[in-house]
Automatic annotation (TrEMBL):
GO molecular function: helicase activity
Record organism: Streptomyces olivaceoviridis (Streptomyces corchorusii)
Keyword Hydrolase: yes
Residue ranges of the region described as Disordered: 27-53
Protein name: DEAD/DEAH box helicase
NCBIfam families reported in the protein's UniProt record: DECH_helic
Domain of life from the UniProt record: Bacteria
A family per Pfam: Helicase_C
Keywords: ATP-binding, Helicase, Hydrolase, Nucleotide-binding
Positions of the Helicase C-terminal domain: 335-487
Length: 826
């Protein structure tokens, strides 16, 4: 029997929320005025004082597992390169910036020298100015050219909101420069009547990769004047381009470079990233160009106190009687409440939109018990709000009218909210880069700041709050992407051929995998070779072959049965387990039951309901090895990496009571199997190793299954992935290896680079996995170590002690060179 995990789509059962009223450990002010907001403190409180108040009382103090103190850092100034136009320097000085930081001046120097460059420094270090100053100076030079349009620049951001923010900043900075700089946002929201003006006259165009892929590149003849004059391409927040999305963006950028070359331009790429390991390597994979890195952060920083916080165990019991901790959501709501009572301006980062709304509601209710006026000083902030709503919230937080926000990562990227004193992070955000990005939102004005990471009840969060060195003594992760993924490359070759016939000379640009992919596209009659070039053969748009943010397949539309209203979509790969008939589906805080799933038309009909249960899909998975690329002996066992085919079938679903997790029943489903060709890492053990680990046949399946669960949970510490991006299978006797085998695979067609990263860091990854299981205080396994929220087998069987012994024996044979000198994050 195989024990398996799907990478995405299994409904995550709601963790129990404590309903016990909070006893605030922070002294309450006695004379609040109810008719107006409480006055903001005249000075910023020290982060140590704020933390002391939060942890007053024995029960609160015990929740802190570690406190890290990062001392303040002085800034280092430099001078702008003498090639920067004096008008630009004057405009910067008019904004109150007399001298640049050293890294800003160095980045500008590289940009003017024509070096593609990535600046990878901390939050609030002035990355935007580092690329804006040389770009604006070049646009001014171009405006004085006697002939032609003059220089142009293209800005790419991962979100429309960030592009809009940047456009406002550019307009403010360039206002003294007159009409020589003409910034404009060009995305799906741009009115059609404005688009022609932007194409003809805009010289600083801000857009996103999606619009570049679907709108600009396919219409390149209409953009010929802009592309012919293109001097710079700015790629902001480039660390977000990872996995399959990053691989798609890498190919979109290669298409852009190809068209620019045909028009006679060779733009310089300027990238901005959060602090990352080997930023130049990641930037080169993204752009396909040599890239210089600027990573020595010369900006000043206030004191940062960073606390790790573990919620307490409750009296409730979850699956198979496992102990359950109080949720990170409930803890975060408490902390946001207490910070607001203290008058501390704070943001609580939450991974889901629903979680952000829920934390805000809980905090408002508890603040109303103290003083009704305080309840109005906390709000939610997430994607999906109208731009004017977001701007109003940002202004209210900046002014002190709002004291607290519960926010998704919509506030993490680039939005400038200065003056915050504290950040609460509800659950590890997936990467150390995101963790520091979120923590850096506080203290941007140079004052001290407090950051608190509240652990969720899962293996990775639990490991991190008890192993602070994994956060504070390790570099941030490398960005993982794989532009050579054939499932990514194929549609972009079609799109490139539709833009301009594809020649032999173009193939080096798109990578070595072209040699294998082009014949397949010809066989599928998508491309046809005529003389020396490949041509697109269809009438439909080639750019529509792929959604660069999707995982493949037509998304399933979720439609309200009574009204016909479209509620949203679910990725095709997740539909079988997320919107099967009878599934509980959550949308914008409302609960729906799925009445039917039509796979042929890709529609799920739902109706609003309020069931007292959640649903969890059960499935079966088999995995076949197609090709082994690399294998390394691990003692008698082996560690391997290669191509696999995963076959999965959702066979039933469980109904579980919301609060207790009690199983109310199981319902069979009749859904077709699905196959996925992807990349995987796997390891085998021999009979001798099982004997050494005292693993009997009775506990073998549970030991492998527990090790698989925990290794999936820990991989995001070593690769820039989410546990929902990857899947796993454990088999006591696999037909291809004829040995007990554990697989961890990328949950995307063709792979996303995560399994490859796992292979290269396997020794550190599995060592951390073993430590996470062994150090958990539970008796037989719980969500903090070996239970998984997405287990298709209902977390059965699992054997905690067997997993520890098995990994101990396996790691004894791990060669030192397996890590190839790589650290946990690097």
């Amino acid at each position: 029997m195989a024990f398996n995990h799907l990478p995405a789509g299994v409904h995550d059962a709601l963790a129990p929320l404590s309903v016990t009223p909070v006893t605030h450990s922070v002294p309450m002010a006695k004379n609040h005025r109810s008719d107006r907001p409480q006055a903001r403190p005249a000075s910023h409180p020290s982060p140590g004082t704020v933390l002391d108040r939060l942890t007053a009382g024995p029960s609160r103090a015990a929740r802190i597992t570690h406190t890290e103190h990062l001392p303040p850092r002085a800034g280092r100034h430099a001078v702008w390169p003498d090639r920067i136009r004096p008008e630009v320097i004057a405009a910067v000085q008019a904004c109150g910036i007399e001298h640049p930081w050293a890294h800003q001046a160095l980045a500008a120097e590289h940009a003017l020298d024509g070096d593609s460059m990535v600046v990878a420094t901390g939050t609030a270090s002035g990355k935007s100015l580092a690329y804006l100053v040389p770009v604006l100076s070049t646009l001014l030079d171009g405006a004085e050219a006697p002939n032609g349009r003059g220089a142009t620049a293209l800005y790419l951001s991962p979100t429309k909101a960030l592009a809009a923010d940047q456009c406002r900043s550019v307009k403010e900075l360039s206002q003294p420069l007159g009409t020589s700089v003409r910034p404009a946002v060009y995305d799906g929201d741009t009115p059609f009547e404005e688009r022609e003006w932007i194409r003809q006259y805009g010289n600083y165009v801000l857009t996103n990769p999606d619009m570049l892929h679907r709108g600009i590149l396919p219409s390149h003849p209409r953009w010929s004047s802009f592309l012919r004059s293109l001097k710079y391409v700015v790629i902001d927040e480039c660390h977000t381009y990872r996995g399959v999305f990053g691989s798609h963006v890498a190919q979109v950028l290669r298409r852009l470079r190809r068209l620019c070359a045909r028009y006679g331009s060779f733009p310089v790429f300027l990238l901005a990233s959060a602090t990352a390991a080997e930023p130049a390597v990641a930037a080169r994979r993204l752009t396909g160009l040599p890239v210089v890195e600027v990573a020595d952060d010369a900006s000043p920083r206030g004191e940062l106190v960073f606390a790790l916080w573990e919620p307490p165990l409750t009296e409730l019991h979850g699956e198979r009687g496992a102990p359950v901790r109080r949720t990170a959501t409930a803890e975060t709501a408490d902390l946001l409440t207490d910070l607001t009572v203290q008058g501390v301006r704070s943001v609580a980062f939450v991974r889901s939109r629903r979680g952000a709304e829920l934390i805000a509601v809980i905090a408002q209710e508890r603040l109303a018990e103290v003083d009704r006026s305080l309840a109005r000083r906390v709000a939610a902030y997430r994607g999906g709000y109208l731009p004017e709503e977001r701007r109003a919230l940002e202004r209210a937080l900046h002014s002190g009218e709002l004291l607290g926000l519960a926010a998704t990562t919509a506030l993490e990227l680039g939005v400038d909210v200065s003056g915050l004193d504290a950040v609460v992070i509800s659950g590890y955000p997936g990467t150390r880069a995101s963790l520091w990005q979120q923590a850096g939102r506080a203290g941007r004005s140079g004052q001290g700041a407090l950051a608190v990471l509240v652990a969720r009840d899962d293996p990775l969060d639990t490991f991190l709050v008890h192993h602070p060195e994994a956060l504070f003594d390790q570099p941030v992760e490398s960005t993982v992407l794989d532009p050579d993924n054939p499932y990514v490359l194929a549609p972009h070759l079609c799109a490139a051929a539709a833009e301009l016939p594809l020649t032999e000379e173009d193939l080096d640009l798109f990578g070595p995998a072209c040699a294998d992919v082009l014949p397949q596209l010809e066989a599928a009659k998508l491309l046809r070779r005529r003389t020396k070039a490949w041509h697109w053969t269809r009438r439909e748009r080639a750019a529509d072959l792929t959604d660069i943010r999707g995982t493949g397949g037509r998304p399933v539309q979720v439609v309200e049965a009574g009204t016909g209203r479209l509620l949203g979509t679910v990725d095709a790969g997740a539909a079988h387990s997320a919107v099967h008939e009878g599934a509980v589906h959550l949308h914008q805080g409302r609960t729906y039951l799925v009445r039917s799933l039509d796979l042929e038309d890709s529609v799920a009909l739902v109706e609003q309901a309020d069931p007292p249960y959640s649903t969890v899909a059960r499935d079966t998975t088999s995995i076949a090895i197609l090709e082994t690329d690399t294998e390394i002996p691990w003692g008698a066992g082996r560690l391997c990496y290669g191509s696999v085919e995963v076959t999965n079938q959702v066979v039933s679903y469980l109904r579980r009571r919301l609060i207790t997790g009690e199983v109310l029943g199981e319902t069979k489903l009749d859904l077709p199997p699905r196959t996925l060709r992807t990349r995987a890492v796997w390891w085998t053990v021999t009979e001798d190793q099982l004997d050494a680990a005292r693993i009997t046949p009775e506990i073998l399946g549970g030991s492998l299954h527990a090790a698989e669960h925990a290794s999936i949970g820990m991989l995001p510490l070593f690769a820039t992935c989410d546990r929902w991006d990857i899947g796993g299978v454990s088999v006591p006797l696999h037909p291809d290896t004829l040995l007990p085998t554990v697989f961890v695979y990328d949950g995307h067609p063709g792979g996303a680079g995560f399994a490859e990263r796992a292979f290269h860091t396997a020794r550190a990854w599995l060592t951390a996995t073993r430590e996470a299981i062994a150090s958990c205080e539970c008796e037989a396994g719980c969500p903090s170590c070996i239970q998984s929220p997405k287990c298709g087998n209902g977390n059965d069987p699992l054997h905690k002690r067997g997993a520890v012994r098995l990994l101990t024996v396996l790691l004894r044979g791990a060669p030192e060179e397996t890590d190839a000198g790589e650290s946990a994050g690097g």
